[in-house]
Amino acid sequence: MNSSNKVALVTGGARRLGKHISLSLAESGYDIVLNYNESGKLILEKILKNLSEFNVNVTAVKCDLTKVKEIKKMFSVVSLKYGKLDLLVNNAAVFKKSDFFETTEKMYDNFLDTNLKGMFFCCQEAAKIMLKSENKISRIINIASLGAIENWTGYIPYSLAKTGVIKLTSQLGKKLAPEIIVNAIAPGTIEMEDEVNADKENINKYPMKKFADTGDILSLVKYLALENKYITGQTFIVDGGKSL
User: Fold this and answer.
1) 30 catalytic, yes or no?
2) CB count, 10 Å around CB of 214?
């Protein structure tokens, strides 16, 4: 495909934060490769329709990120269709409570496979494409979590995986420099305008007395994607001071 636009792949790009990241990057002129897995037909159709309004190329790729074979196939689509990849946003994740004593092996594997293993192999496949690029700098942005910074005892497998994301980010920041810049964003609670937030009673734990909104995350994504040319291997905590 002949396109002068930059190309971004967003995992979990059809719903929640991933949807907003996809739309924000399209608005900034990126062609979008939108990864999805369990998003329903109506959800997918809606996001694709919204993305089409920005007059960029959009490719939706279904991929189960717990399966490395499927990850490799997804990136082969990127190579065949675009011949390049400028930005990978690893956003897809499984997030839910899991009592320590009731966590099964299957539950544990699902958290680690989706939230960390899948991210590792997405970075690996993305880097193969990026290092062949004529661009001077390509970028990877990993979505971590405040749960990797604080001890969320109701979310231990999730937090373990997200802690791995932070370490993966620093390792790849060193390994892939200077051709690829790798950073992570670790949000606390995000207020989604199209969702009812059940965490209101915890808002006073945030020194800023409010949760992040999607704009707080998107502005940082845009900076890391479009402006940053030097910072790498770092995790940016967006939590209104809660971890202080």
Assistant:
1) no
2) 21
